[in-house]
Amino acid sequence: MEKRFANPWWVVFGSIFGLIVGNGPIMQFTFGVFLKPITQEFGWERSTTSTALVVGLLGTGLCVPIAGRLMDKYGVRAVTLPSITAFALAMIALAFFANSPMAFVIIYALMGMAAAGQTPMPYSKAITAAFDDKRGLALGIAMAGVGIGAALVPQIAQYLVTNYGWRGAYVGLAALTFCLAFPAVALFVNTEPAVKHGSAGAPIARPGLTGAQALRTGKFWALAVAFFSVAMASNGTIGHIVPLLTDRGFSPQIAAGAMTFAGVALVAGRFVAGYLLDRIFAPYVATFFFVIPLGGIALLLMAPGQMTATIAVVMIGLGLGAEVDLIAYLVSRYLGMRSFGEIYGYLFMIFMLGNAVGPFLMGVSFGMGGYETCLAGFVVALVIASGLVLRLGTYAFPPERRGPPPSQGAKPAIA
């Protein structure tokens, strides 16, 4: 990194701006803003148009491990800067070429694939490489950018749609993404490739497992099942919280207001989780943030009143706010930094699959008579997730202040 930006907190600063316009705020949180004007202009069914989001998210999930592997080999900037550019160009393509449902879905798929390099993964990789002792706090502060983007970007999109139409809005979001994220990454966010070369030309790898080794460990699959369960439960419940509350007699305004509290809790969850990770054994922190949404879902099963329902949504939002930080931190401590991008990519793909499965299961459950059966299943899933992280054991790659790091030549046990 350039000497004028050698302080690692510049990486956090740049990551905040990059994540404000990351794949979540841009693709997921603005989609509802565009849905009605697009369907009205073309007369498409909402279900047809919504297919684009599913395909786009699938494209992101499938490509994140590839992007991570490339970052491990070539560094963050070499992959993320072209990804940001392609992501912005895909939005411009939506504005000019999305004149049929097929074209809209195809372009959205391409946008999702480009977004693989504009997920939290590259920023998590850069931060975990730059920090050790304060890694959790740095991750928490940076990942708050996702919450800021989730709150601000849909408002910007709505303003652009109102004043310039949905096509102009996509061009505006493309410009916003490029102007915020590209310079942030170019100036502040970077890591060197995972494998460097010493003075004699021999490769020197950072401590940790390769992607192939990680896939053969019980710890990887424990993390995979845990974060799939948490994503499924938390996002499944939040995705249906408005109709769930209105079905119980709450006004749409109250239900929407509860979602606002969830957004605030999401940002708070990232700060709190990051702060705690540097001070408390990470599986205990993870369990805490798994049990909180479990309690929120349990409250919803009790058919609560307005105040209790709001508390339940806040509890679920706190869990949502901590997941990405926890994935990055736990990967760095249990599987190491050697192939961090690739391993994080696999877990992020599984995490996104959980995001998709949760709302689907809630819809199926409602069609079979109500949300209660699915909510009860989510409680069980969160109990399983908590048990899995508590069984991870001691860190394989502890912070330096808690013990000596593994030697460069040492091979960690593959369990």
From TrEMBL:
Query: Which UniProt keywords are present, listed alphabetically?
Result: Membrane, Transmembrane, Transmembrane helix
Q: Which residues form the Major facilitator superfamily (MFS) profile domain?
A: 11-402
- Where do the TM regions start and end? 9-31, 51-71, 78-97, 103-124, 136-157, 169-189, 220-242, 254-277, 284-303, 309-331, 343-369, 375-397
InterPro entries, sorted: MFS, MFS_dom, MFS_trans_sf, Proton-linked_MCT
Listed Gene3D superfamilies = MFS general substrate transporter like domains
Q: PANTHER family per the record?
A: EG:103B4.3 PROTEIN-RELATED, MONOCARBOXYLATE TRANSPORTER
Q: What is this protein called?
A: MFS transporter
Question: Source species, please?
Answer: Rubrivivax gelatinosus (Rhodocyclus gelatinosus)
